[in-house]
Amino acid sequence: MTTSNILEKIKQYNTIIIHRHVRPDPDAYGSQNGLAEILKASFPDKTIYVVGEEEASLDFLATMDDIDDHTYKNALVIVCDTANQERISDQRYLQGKELIKIDHHPVVDAYGDIQWVEENASSVSEMIYQFYLEQKNNGLQMTDRAALLLYSGIVADTGRFLYPSTSERTFQYASDLVAYDFDRSAIYEEMYKTNLNIARLKGYILQILRFPPLLV
């Protein structure tokens, strides 16, 4: 499989529906919506949808589309950042005509007519930027909004570039993306809010938690 195969398949369809996993994180949102933004800019005559459960803490990145079952007829479905089918948010993904899987997790479920899996990638957001780089001479276009989304996904899935999955390529792609016009500080602020809320919840749980007395 090459990114050329994916682009050629995309060119064959007028409707493209992009899914990701349940209980989404910033990489799921970033890769899903970053890809959608690239495709919208590159193919303005195509209809691109993003679907799945909403996650309030990620509303600063994107919100989902509400589509009916009929929309899937003759549509290409792309699933981002999801290793197995049970975790795909909105199980209507099977109603599309063809299916593409783009993921960076170990293969546990080889679903899809086309599968692009790179276990060495830090994130699927990194893979989507790679897709753009390899196919920009064939019509793909990057936007400031797509850059924001992909950068957010990379930052989150690498733990702000601290996790072992962070590579030289990761840093290079992040460097490319920050050259676009978006507010990095706003991204970090929103991510900090989420982490702070989680910390407060953990603190509350520890406060109310009661253990039975030890038996002697």
UniProtKB/TrEMBL annotation:
InterPro entries: DDH_dom, DHH_sf, Oligoribo/pAp-PDE_c-di-AMP_PDE. Residues 16-154 form the DDH domain. SUPFAM superfamilies: DHH phosphoesterases. PANTHER family: BIFUNCTIONAL OLIGORIBONUCLEASE AND PAP PHOSPHATASE NRNA. This is 3'-to-5' oligoribonuclease A. It comes from Gracilibacillus boraciitolerans JCM 21714.
